[in-house]
Amino acid sequence: MSPSPSLMAGSMSTSVSRSGATIKQSNSNLSVSSKKSQQHLTMEEQIERLKNNLSRFARVSNKRMALRTLQDCVYLRNIPLERTPDMPTQREEWKLLEEELCLTNVQINGLLFNASAASQVIKVLRALCQELCKGLRVSSETIFMAMLVRTVNSTNSSDAYFSMNALLGSQDLVLKPLQESNTNPKQFQPEEIPPTDLSLYEAGGEVHAVLTAYYPYGLFRRSDKKPWISLLMQVHERLNLNTGASVRQVRTQITTPEL
């Protein structure tokens, strides 16, 4: 596999390191017996146990046991996503996606672009796609559009949200994006969210991509205005842009400190 190509954008260097504070992952502290118990459950049984326990602990305000329930659910650590983001059909929709990407913290092949209306990320991403596609039987514009629709939050996070809400939501709990919840919990400040990370490279005459994006969510009890439990959803995808083959997953990290 050949190394990822360097980005050429004037005097900009590709050695920019990834920024943003590291979010400390909660230790699951699972006992050996608990791990074995989870491994013997089917996926459907894990989900049913998860929903029932979360609802029960939400009703009695037992956050400690709710956190333990989330930590013990092995299935939440790697949930397959069957769909890929939908492609817009109108020129105006593509224009809005480009504007949204400029307002997103994103790292492409190691080069960090901070959110700004004046960001050069669109220009650099398009130039990289053109460079990668030289001599290949794939359109650089096709590659550009495929990566654009995956790197913006509005299109990349929607199916992950619906999958997670189906698992965690109930009559007692609802999952909401923290940016839209009119709250900013101390344990999860916006500057601590890692930037969307995209790697594009050519190997064996085909263009490949690895994308990781992070989305903060909160589990809210129905009567609460602030999140009861804060989560970080990580959407990870590996894809072959020549064949369209893709493996896409969502991983859940608990960011509420243990009690």
Written description of the protein model:
The protein is an alpha+beta fold and about 260 residues long. The chain is about 35% helix and about 20% strand. It has helices at about 30-40, 45-60, 65-70, 90-100, 120-130, 140-150, 155, 160-170, and strands spanning about 80, 105-110, 110-115, 175, 195-205, 205-220, 230-240, 245-255. Strands 1, 2, 3, 4, 5, 6, 7 and 8 form an 8-stranded mixed β-sheet that branches. A hairpin with a 2-residue loop joins strand 5 and strand 6. It is elongated and about 60 Å long. It starts with about 30 loop residues before the first helix and ends in a 5-residue tail after the last strand. Residues about 1-35 and about 180-185 have low confidence and may be disordered.
Structure keywords:
alpha+beta, disordered N terminus, elongated, 259 residues, eight-stranded mixed beta sheet, 8 helices
Task: Walk me through the topology.
Blueprint: H1 32-39, H2 43-59, H3 63-72, E1 79-80, H4 91-102, E2 106-108, E3 111-113, H5 121-132, H6 140-151, H7 153-156, H8 158-168, E4 173-177, E5 196-203, E6 206-221, E7 229-240, E8 246-254
Parallel strand pairs: 2-5
Antiparallel strand pairs: 1-8, 2-3, 4-6, 5-6, 6-7, 7-8
